[in-house]
Amino acid sequence: MRISKLSASKHKKGRILVQLDSGELLRIGEREVVAFSLYVGKELTAQERAALENAARESGLKDRALSMLTTRPMSRKELTDRLVERSDATEEEAGAVADELERLGLLNDRAYAETLVRHYAAKGYGPYRLREELRRRGVPGAYWDEALEELDDPAEAIDAFLRQKLHGRITDRRELKRVSDALARRGFHWSDISAALRRYDEALEEDSE
């Protein structure tokens, strides 16, 4: 089979259309033109065509993965799941793309775990909630403790939450339970919540003296 025409796609940047003398049309990337030394009139064997199509497919999946990562950081599992769900990639192909991006330093579960912990801790969430978020995002458990070690003492975050919600007022048991439950939902340990409530009471007593 012979290449009868090479042209840039009008609809997708970086895509090259390869017209064969058989009337078939192949869609490849610019890098494949260089890698396979393609030109009008070149003869392609069946093996060369298969290799060209495989390379173009791999490049397309990699480009799609990079596009996903520029939208927001992801774990390896999130990325491979999305590649399988949103394209016709197999799990093996998605895994190969992830391997390549990890080698290039563009996909890193350890760094992603640290980013997630910082992000949600800044929003006022505690350790339990952070672990749940790491699990939900598919971050391997081996990286959880290391990322969570960077957390500040939760006391400051809990104290700030109490000041915001209670405004320095003396409250009844019902309101204290409501605030305590809210802190628990945010992922803080009950022991840390109880300690913060004691500090709050002590501060009120000092102010009233």
TrEMBL record:
Pfam families the record matches: RecX_HTH2
Domain RecX second three-helical: 108-148
One Gene Ontology cellular component: cytoplasm
Keywords: Cytoplasm
Cell location: Cytoplasm
Statement: the UniProt record of this protein carries the keyword Cytoplasm: yes
Top-level division of the source organism's lineage: Bacteria
Keyword Magnesium: no
Main location: cytoplasm
One GO BP: regulation of DNA repair
Functional description taken from the UniProt entry: Modulates RecA activity.
Membership in a protein family: Belongs to the RecX family.
Name this polypeptide is given: Regulatory protein RecX
